[in-house]
Write a structure and sequence with these properties.
CATH architecture of one domain: 3-Layer(bba) Sandwich
Number of helices: 15
CATH topology of one domain: FAD/NAD(P)-binding domain
Shape: globular
CATH class of one domain: Alpha Beta
Structural class: alpha+beta
CATH superfamily of one domain: FAD/NAD(P)-binding domain
Largest sheet: 7 strands, mixed
Strand content: 15-25%
Number of strands: 21
Radius of gyration: 22 Å
């Protein structure tokens, strides 16, 4: 077994992990970045989820590096794909035309752009990216991580890394139990947090938002591309959650904002502006719009199937035996596959028929053999016990009547905006969805109470089950990761521990100046709430 030393080991090459690597390398550190799959990027790429963003994203409300990512995605389309002249000249090009975002793009293009953004650090020797690599075990010395042994899952080769700082950018917060760090999982109780939407009685560790194993799906109308009947089709065809209006595989679901039942078909027959709230499922997360491309170059529209009907919330995959975790992940794939089969064969058509046999998977877009994303879309992870935990009452709109933003977080190291959006959970609970004010990311939420050289870089920061619902989105995760990478650099170069920075007004101000110089926005301009 070989050994390596480095300034920072980032375990997890997702959205936050990539942003952390960019920041740490730009500030002069030597970094090892591991990734479980062969695609860096997480929810932007290997999980196949088009960016969920706020209405002001084209003007402000994200880091400079995230804005550069968005600009480079558009540039990639203009430079390498056969766009129409109208699409090519559109400053705010939305390649897929989907409504969930102003930039619905293919995961494989996001992956190529992220590789492009990391290449200068790789070429300089500051960044070592290890694909197909996971953390296997750790050693600690008191309140510090001494080493992490990483393993290539293909070759089996192990390397013991001795870093000055460790950043946990895994999708489930895997390093927290591995290093003995204190963490929370599931739903806190009202008695713990006083949050209006927290659960009554005792905390519920098994109350975790559902995950989704997404896939890219195209429509070739008039063709017959029906897959073999999935092994678990009968199970999922009969599935009806207690809180659901009908069979789960159907077009009747719940409006998360109101709790009312609604009919949401795959094709509505209407095309309305982004964020209109009235849409069909196909166009909601559409990532390929043929009308943006020259005739016949892109014959079929493509969407990402990350819909209510393939949210898997039967059981949690956190802190369970590995065989149980893998079994549940297979069930989530079978649910998605069953949804595809139902859409192909039984779904009520807008013209009165049944089934859309021309729907088919696009494995090439996902970079996979089976057509699924390389990794499931994870909405909720283990969370550090932080110096500060962001609560619902800190950011919810209804707890700040008449205001356009919450009380200022004086140690802010970033911004975000999204509704508190919790999908059905493994406790059997339905949606929790409420409006927020544009919020900030407090430095103290990135700092564990005890561990001295371990930082979170994604949805494993100091939030609750409730506030995770708005801190988990793409630009927010990017900002969390970028600020975590910068914090590691700030501490390494100055010989500090994160707790010293978080507990000092002067050091906090100096760190805010550093991230500000890197292009991180830490405050919102005057604006109206969502």
């Amino acid at each position: 077994m070989s050994e390596r030393a480095c300034d920072v080991l980032i375990v997890g090459g997702g959205t936050g992990g990539c942003a952390a690597a960019m920041a740490a390398c730009a500030l002069g550190l030597n970094v090892i970045l591991t990734e479980e799959t062969d695609w860096i990027g997480g929810q932007l790429t290997s999980q196949g989820v088009p960016p969920d963003e706020h209405p002001w994203i084209e003007q402000f409300g994200c880091t400079a590096r995230y804005r550069n990512y968005r600009n480079l995605v558009r540039k990639f389309y203009r430079d390498h794909l056969p766009l129409t002249s109208e699409a090519r000249n559109n400053k705010e090009l939305n390649p897929g035309g989907g409504w969930v975002s102003r930039l619905c793009h293919e995961p494989r293009i996001g992956w190529q752009v992220l590789n492009q953004m990391l290449q200068p650090a790789i070429s300089s020797g500051r960044l070592d990216v290890r694909l197909f690599t996971v953390a296997d075990r750790s050693t600690t010395n008191g309140d510090s991580v001494e080493s992490i042994t990483i393993q290539n899952t293909v070759s089996g080769v192990q390397t013991t890394v001795r870093p000055k700082f460790v950043i946990d950018a895994t999708e489930l917060g895997d390093l927290l139990p591995m290093t003995g760090a204190e963490y929370v999982v599931g739903a806190e109780s009202k008695s713990q947090t006083q949050e209006p939407n927290a659960v009554d009685g005792e905390a519920q560790p098994n109350n975790v938002q559902g995950l989704t194993w997404v896939f890219a799906m195209a429509l070739d109308e008039g063709s017959h591309r029906v897959i073999d009947r999935p092994v678990q089709y009968d199970r999922w065809k009969a599935f009806k959650p207690d809180f659901w209006p009908g069979q789960f595989l159907g077009f009747e679901d719940i409006n998360p904002h109101t709790g009312e039942f609604r009919h949401l078909p795959i094709f509505s027959g209407q095309r309305k502006p982004w964020y209109s709230g009235d849409f069909g499922l196909f166009t909601y997360r559409q990532i390929v719009e043929p009308r943006n491309f020259t005739p016949d170059s892109v014959p079929h529209p493509v969407t990402i199937v990350n819909w209510p009907q393939n949210d898997y919330f039967i059981e949690s995959i956190i802190d369970v035996p590995e065989d149980a975790k893998q079994s549940r992940l297979e069930d989530s794939k079978q649910l998605s596959l069953s949804l595809l089969y139902w859409l192909q064969t039984e779904a009520p058509r807008h013209d009165g028929g049944a089934g859309y046999p021309g729907l088919y998977m696009r494995p090439d877009i996902m970079g996979s053999e089976d057509g699924f994303a390389k990794y499931p879309y994870i909405r909720e992870a283990r969370r550090i016990v932080a110096q500060r935990t962001v609560l619902e009452q800190d950011i919810a709109a209804y707890t700040h009547p008449g205001l356009d933003r919450p009380t200022e977080m004086t140690d802010s190291v970033g911004v975000g905006s999204y509704r508190i959006d919790l999908h059905p959970s493994t406790s059997g609970a339905s949606y929790i969805d409420t409006s927020t004010l544009p919020f900030q990311i407090p430095l103290q939420a990135l700092i564990p109470q005890r561990m001295r050289n371990l930082l979170p870089a994604c949805k494993n920061l100091g939030v609750t089950h409730i506030t995770n619902g708005c801190y988990r989105l793409h630009p927010v995760e990017w900002n969390i990761g970028e600020s975590a990478g910068a914090l590691a650099a700030f501490c390494v170069t100055r010989g500090l521990e994160p707790q010293q920075v978080g507990n000092s007004e002067q050091l906090t101000r100096e760190f805010q100046q550093l991230v500000g110089a890197q292009g991180v926005e830490i405050a919102w301009p005057k604006l109206r709430p969502l």
